[in-house]
């Protein structure tokens, strides 16, 4: 599948100052920026930057960032599902996974995460895709936010729901391992019926649960 990408940008005010939200950002541009040390939910910031540079270089890879000058303070990633995950078994060229969304702690509270998603879906080509997100509570910053896992789940539902993502049932073992975990997805307006049906089938591996 050909993966066209349309760049979009937006400047937003936050309590920590104005931020530029932009993307999809090419890999060479990402490599030239600096990542905030607080972007460490998945790995230390320098290694996270390396991972995002690699994703941006993929044909389907999309990275949208929030930055203050040359300092990246937030990002969201889109790429094909990991080959080890069940979602890749559908073999859908129009299925992308929202792999991660993260905002450095000093820049939270200004709606940055929602704006990262909003700019992502300003690209009309995203309507050609099913975009899924697997939400696991152990990736959430419960310690610093000081809210319950259930309140955090509602926050994530609202953030993802702001661009039309919905909660879908699944029998995926990791998602089912805790009731706060969830599968969310956005089915683009131009996705064909066959792709939608294949996505719905892959949500379950036990036939009687369909």
From TrEMBL:
- Matches recorded under PROSITE patterns: GNAT (PS51186)
CDD domains hit by this protein: NAT_SF (cd04301)
| TM spans (from-to) | none
Q: Name one GO molecular function term.
A: acetoin dehydrogenase (NAD+) activity
Q: Which residues form a coiled coil?
A: none
* Biological processes annotated in GO: acetoin catabolic process
* Signal sequence range: none
N-acetyltransferase domain segment(s): 19-189
UniProt name for this protein: Acetoin dehydrogenase
């Amino acid at each position: 599948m050909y993966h066209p990408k349309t760049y979009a940008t937006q400047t937003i005010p936050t309590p920590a100052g104005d931020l530029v939200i932009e993307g999809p950002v090419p890999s060479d541009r990402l490599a030239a920026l600096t990542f905030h040390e607080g972007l460490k939910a998945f790995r230390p910031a320098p290694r996270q930057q390396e991972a995002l540079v690699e994703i941006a270089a993929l044909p389907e890879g999309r990275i949208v960032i929030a930055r203050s000058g040359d300092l990246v303070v937030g990002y969201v990633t889109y790429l094909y599902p990991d080959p080890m995950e069940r979602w890749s078994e559908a073999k859908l060229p129009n299925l992308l996974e929202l792999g991660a969304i993260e905002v450095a702690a000093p820049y939270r509270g200004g709606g940055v995460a929602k704006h990262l998603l909003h700019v992502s879906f300003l690209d009309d080509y995203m309507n050609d895709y099913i975009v899924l997100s697997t939400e696991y509570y152990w990736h959430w910053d419960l310690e610093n936010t000081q809210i319950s896992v259930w309140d955090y789940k509602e926050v994530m539902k609202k953030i993802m729901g702001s661009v039309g993502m919905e909660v879908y049932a699944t029998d995926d073992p990791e998602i089912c391992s805790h009731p706060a975990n969830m599968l969310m997805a956005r089915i683009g307006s131009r996705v064909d019926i066959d792709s939608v049906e294949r996505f719905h089938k892959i949500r379950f591996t036990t036939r009687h649960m369909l």
